[in-house]
Amino acid sequence: MACRDVEVRMEAIEQLGGMWEEAEAVAGAAEAAPVEAIAVLHSRGLSDSSAGVRGAAIEWLGRSGNVGMLSDALDDPAVPNRMRTVALLASLQQPRRLLPALRDAEPRVRLAAVHGCDRLADEIIRGEADGSDLRGEAMEALMGLLSDSDRPVRHAAAAALGRLGDRHWQAAFPQRDGPPSFEALSESPRPEVLTLLIDLLTVALPEDRRLAAQLLGLNRLNATSWTLSERACAGLRVLARDPDATVRVQALHSLGEGRDAGSLATVIGSLADSSTKVRHAAALAAGKIGDPRAQQVLVRVLTRREDVTVQAAVCAALHRLPGSAGS
Fold first, then answer.
1. pLDDT in tens, 133-181
2. SS3 string of the chain?
């Protein structure tokens, strides 16, 4: 019975939408269509207990172009309905109506709203001509999303900021759908860049992971705006076990630059890596970290058959440890 009730209500929504559509076709303008049909779609349709019925009402409100009533659907309990509402508002070129969705509790809705702002960047910028600060409001909201809990939202917000004229993020995301510019990120003094670089430690391409690990370990970055945080070190420790040896090497170099004693176990474990270059990087990192607990393991490396470059790095590391003759 309940299922039948939903079918009846769905049919009623479609009939109301059909009434509006017929009237619009006759009048030749949506404004001339009977407001009663749209009002009922809004009042009854959006308050229905069925997500499907509410979704049908949202579709008709979108087709009607009544953005005021459609915007109320941003509070719909169903995530797909809110996402669809965002898409409809974007298609109707209503950037200001999208801004509340940037604060939605669901990451997928926030992401859809960010993409909408990105696509409507030109409209947002032109909105300044009427004296409003739409661009400022949008940029402020997007800046807040740079620390969002969801990685795709953070990246999309940074790219959208570039499209809205933030010169830093324009340089960081030079292509709409392309990868970020590692050169621009390496020169940035902004603390939000740290989060973005940590995100890049998990991207698919080994070269991108290697570059992200390299940037995190750059002395100039650590000396200007931030040092390696525990979150950054945790990401680098994961990369020290990356399938790609060049990524493992770079991760170890950056852990060494970070002088993070909490990464000592990872560095010591890498002294047994199958790659000579990784073992070499691990020895150098152990010396830079400078924790005397590494001494026993480093000495054992010298007692086994080992590549001469690794042996030299181990000797240099031992020389740097506290209590050694040369330290």
1. 888 889 889 988 887 888 888 888 888 888 888 777 777 777 766 667 7
2. CHHHHHHHHHHHHHHHHHHHHHHHHHHCCHHHCCHHHHHHHHHHHCCCCCHHHHHHHHHHHHHHCCHHHHHHHHHCCCHHHHHHHHHHHHHCCCHHHHHHHHHCCCHHHHHHHHHHHHHCHHHHHHHHHHCCCHHHHHHHHHHHHHHCCCHHHHHHHHHHHHHCCCHHHHHHCCCCCCCCCHHHHHCCCCCHHHHHHHHHCCCCCHHHHHHHHHHHHCHHHHHHCCCCCHHHHHHHHHHCCCCCHHHHHHHHHHHHHHCCHHHHHHHHHHHHCCCHHHHHHHHHHHHHHCCHHHHHHHHHHHCCCCCHHHHHHHHHHHHHCCCCCCC
